[in-house]
Specification:
The chain is an all-alpha fold and 94 residues long. It contains four helices and no strands. The relative contact order is 0.18.
């Protein structure tokens, strides 16, 4: 329960700061991982900075977002896309 509350607070904070401050400057912006992060994750919402969450939190969030994508009939991430995205987030997580 505590982890769920922390995650919820993180998501609310990401949404609030993402909308209030405009586009997030992300590290290593020209990398394949960053481009994928922007194109896939930024398609639906403002991008939180990768340091906003730990790698473990990003793994959980990615699973949640994939569920939401399926609910919205959006194409699922391929195995390679997921690997690249998680690699990027792992390198730049807090």
């Amino acid at each position: 329960m505590k982890n769920a509350l922390i995650l919820l607070a993180s998501l609310i904070g990401a949404a609030a700061t993402g909308c209030a401050t405009g586009p997030t400057s992300i590290p290593d912006a020209s990398s394949a991982g960053a481009r994928l992060y922007v194109s896939k994750c930024g398609a639906c919402h403002s991008l939180p900075h990768p340091k906003r969450n730990s790698y473990r939190e990003w793994q959980h969030l990615l699973e949640l977002m994939q569920q939401r994508m399926a609910e919205q009939k959006m194409p699922a991430l391929t195995g390679e896309e997921k690997e690249v995205l998680l690699g990027y987030l792992q390198r730049h997580a807090r």
